[in-house]
Write a structure and sequence with these properties.
Number of domains of chain B: 1
Helix content of chain B: 10-25%
Radius of gyration of chain A: 33 Å
Number of helices of chain B: 3
Number of strands of chain B: 14
Oligomer: heterodimer
CATH topology of chain B: Immunoglobulin-like
Largest sheet of chain B: 7 strands, mixed
Shape of chain B: elongated
Distance between the termini of chain B: 95 Å
Helix content of chain A: 25-40%
Order of helices and strands of chain A: HHHEEEEEHEEEEE
Shape of chain A: elongated
CATH topology of the largest domain in chain A: Immunoglobulin-like
Strand content of chain B: 35-45%
Largest sheet of chain A: 8 strands, mixed
Radius of gyration of chain B: 26 Å
Number of domains of chain A: 2
Order of helices and strands of chain B: HEEEEEEEEEEEHEHEE
Number of strands of chain A: 10
Structural class of chain A: alpha+beta
CATH architecture of the largest domain in chain A: Sandwich
CATH class of the largest domain in chain A: Mainly Beta
Largest interface: A-B, 19 and 27 residues
């Protein structure tokens, strides 16, 4: 019996199909009720606030409302600073370091650094002095000088086990290896007041055949309290502070 | 039990606001670290003097300068000049990692040791015998006179955070301005010895 009853219900439901447009119309009305309600509420709020205002007060209120409205869209963010020119032979200040670009050279090998077949080494030679009061890691300075882009620098190897989908669209370029030019050794620290000539070294493809490389130096910003990590008190490489092109000296025949 | 909304009175509001204000004032103005010792216990001394740091005994045995330090695998050239500090540690109680090594000049600048060419920037010592270590600090000319070396169990990074509430040794290296000039002009090379049992001294060449 029950089964037949359900069957009749289904049959009855089928007969009510002509009612469907009515329900559909009701739903459409329900959908449009949201914006209507918001508009009515907004109008009432504006009317309640503005009705007793003078014209001047309404203008001021409108300006204030506009300023509040543009705030979430970065209206008050610091305008990105234009990078200053970077010229070989001219000292610039990068965080606690005074840096002078000396030259850029290519070489087949430097100290213990040997490139893969088909590549060579690109070295940016700089004079660096730590002008602060405490020793700084050499790697802190290295992070302020990103690899020159679009000049055939060999990208960093992706981490072992990384999925192809996780890789960035543009290959990540490596931080430089840093050697002391005087003795071709690695320095861990740069002590205050001591000047060093350092070579910042990247592996570069032999297919690159330019005469100059674009060099950027990042602003190093001191982070006293790091709310996002546990590393309080460190230099953070921020936006590009200096940008320029440095001629590349090719080795003489037999020098490579 | 009485139901319904309780009246918000001026008296109640004033009490709450007064309590919040008093709390904020206490947090903002009462020093939080009263009675808490954060600074290290500094033990001062001189070259040749043995200092007791409770966890170890320390003697700075010699101070030299060098343009270059070398060992069997590497030669490192100084950007300024290497201040080479020979020290002997003797752990008091158990195996001890001695991580702090720093030179400070009279201006307060802080110089950290290199780990090139066999120079040590830390030491691991066992109790019961002395252990010789050579530290090399690359200094500018104006940092030599009046320099002190600070050696300790805790490291000196992050404003000496690792040395809080612990003993540190601060040793006056005894370099006068006149001696500093002489030391700067000397073009010496020091061959470092790997850390080990004390011998008659490092070789200077």
């Amino acid at each position: 019996m029950a089964g037949r009853g359900r069957s009749r219900d289904r049959a009855g439901g089928a007969r009510k199909v002509p009612d469907a447009p009515l329900r559909s119309g009701a739903m459409k009305h329900a959908r449009t009720a949201g914006p209507d309600l918001a508009y009515r509420l907004g109008s009432r709020v504006v009317a309640a606030v503005a009705d007793d205002m003078s014209t001047t007060q309404r203008v001021v209120a409108g300006v204030v409302a506009a300023l509040v409205a543009v705030t979430p869209f970065g209206a008050w963010g610091e305008v990105e600073a234009q990078a200053d020119p970077l010229t070989p032979g001219t000292a610039v200040e990068v965080g606690p370091f005074e840096v002078t670009v000396v030259r850029a050279v290519t070489a087949d090998e430097l100290s213990y650094l040997t490139p893969a077949p088909g590549n060579h080494l690109l070295a940016l030679v700089v004079d660096v002095t730590n002008t602060g009061d405490v020793a700084e890691y050499t790697s802190t300075f290295g992070r302020a000088v990103p690899a020159p882009r679009n000049v055939g620098i060999i990208p960093q190897e992706p981490p072992a086990g990384a999925e192809a989908a996780d890789q960035p669209d543009e290959p990540r370029l490596p931080s430089p290896s840093v050697l002391n030019v005087e003795d071709a050794t690695s320095l861990t620290f740069l002590n205050p007041g001591v000047s060093y000539q350092l070579a910042l070294i990247w592996e570069q493809s032999d297919r690159w055949s330019g005469t100059a490389v674009p060099v950027e130096m990042l602003e190093l910003e001191w982070v006293e309290d790091d709310p996002q990590g546990l590393d309080d008190g460190h230099w953070f490489p921020n936006q590009v502070a200096f940008r320029g092109r440095v001629p590349v000296k090719q080795p003489e025949a037999g020098e490579r | 039990m009485r139901h319904g909304r309780r009246r918000i009175t001026w008296k109640g509001t004033a009490l709450v606001l007064g309590a919040v204000t008093a709390g904020c004032t206490l947090v903002a103005y009462v020093p939080q670290d009263v009675g808490v010792v954060e600074t290290p216990f500094v033990v001062e001394g001189a070259v040749g003097e043995t200092l007791d740091l409770t966890y170890a005994q320390l003697t700075v045995t010699d101070v030299r300068v060098a343009d270059t330090v070398t060992n069997v695998s590497e030669a490192a050239a100084a950007g300024g000049t290497f201040l080479v500090v020979d020290a002997t540690w003797r752990a008091a109680q158990g195996p001890t990692a001695l991580l702090g090594a720093e030179v400070t000049d009279p201006e307060g600048r802080r110089f950290w040791p290199t780990d090139q060419a066999g120079c040590a920037n830390s030491a691991d010592v066992q109790p019961g015998y002395s252990w010789r270590v050579t530290y090399c600090f690359d200094l500018p000319r104006d940092a030599l006179a009046g320099a002190t070396v600070r050696l300790a169990r805790g490291d000196q990074k992050e404003e000496h955070a690792g040395q809080r509430r612990d003993a540190v040794a601060v040793i006056d290296l005894g370099i006068s301005p006149e001696q500093a000039d002489t030391l700067w002009e000397a073009a010496d090379s020091v061959t470092t010895e790997a850390p080990g049992y004390p011998t008659t001294g490092g070789s200077a060449g």
